[in-house]
Amino acid sequence: MNSKQCPTCGSANIYQESATIYRCGDCFDKLPIGGMMDSPPPKVYGTSKQKSKTDSFKNWKNLITGITVTWLVLGSTFFTYFQNFKSTLNTTTEEETVSIPVDPNLESIEIIPEGEFEYTTAIPDVLGNLYFVGKFTNSSGKSILMPKFTVSLFNESKENIKTSEGYAEKNVVNDGESVIFQVLVEDAPSYFNFDINVTATTLPNETIKPNLVLKQIDIKRTLSKELILVGKIQNKSNFTTNYTRISCLLINKQEKTVDYATVSLEKEDFLPKEVQNFELNFPRSKQVPNFYYCETDAITKENVKAN
């Protein structure tokens, strides 16, 4: 056997491990010192079966270790997520089962208030929609909150073919007070007649409203043939108001609404005794109406009073 070959496996892949030790690069057996003093060839990793088995074992070991670590991480993540989900579910369940006490002195109920409808008209637009507009006077004997108006369209067979809902321009309507309403019916079909109903929630006490007075009202026609209504509004209350607005209906000789508009004052605080100008545009009306109906509404600003 060649002195530069491994006596165990016959490999020529010999390298010097230390000053006195030579070793086979394939089977890793220690070689006799005699006859090995010549420098061995550079170290080259062999491809013997023993080396292949060792590398294969290491690869499988690393793969199994990686899979184990991955499952541990995923298991910890899923456990944490489950605990958080369970905690959230318990919290949600507890919140849903909390009972809210109802004030027995509130005495607010939903009613169909008695009242009178006036100037009710269906005004079309260019998109095929209808705006049912008019005035409702509350005569229920109670103040009502958020009156909701429901318009139902019927065909000649008295079948309901369309229903829409809308609200009044005022949130609170005291007994004997009137309010303008508007209900939009989108893509309105052809109908034979219609019906309007109103529902609202009662208020235990009458709401004190600001005393807003309209005066010097006049209707003019612009150069583009549109009608405008101009006038003045005065706050005769002893307190400041916010979100002050004016709503008006233009009415013809048949007592039908031909146009309507709403405008809010640009100035936020409307001071006591103050007077402001206002203007409403009516682009749909082509003829001067026979008369008009206007109303005001505002929110009382708290803790601000006249000197």
What is the count of structural domains?
Answer: 4
The SSE order reads EEEHEEEEEEEEEEEEEE
Broad structural category: alpha+beta
CATH architecture of the largest domain: Sandwich
Q: Strand share of the residues?
A: 35-45%
What is the name of the CATH topology of the largest domain?
Answer: Immunoglobulin-like
State the share of residues found in helices, binned by percent: 10-25%
* Strand elements, count: 17
Q: So, the CATH homologous superfamily of the largest domain?
A: Immunoglobulins
Largest sheet: number of strands, sense, barrel closure: 8 strands, antiparallel
CATH top level assignment of the largest domain:
Mainly Beta
What is the CA-based Rg, rounded? 45 Å
Q: Helical region count? A: 1
Mean pLDDT: 79
Q: What is the straight-line distance between the termini?
A: 124 Å
> Based on CA inertia axes, which overall geometry fits?
elongated
The unreliable regions are 34-53, 91-105
Protein name: TFIIB-type zinc ribbon-containing protein
Keywords: Membrane, Transmembrane, Transmembrane helix
Organism: Leptospira montravelensis
Transmembrane segments: 63-82
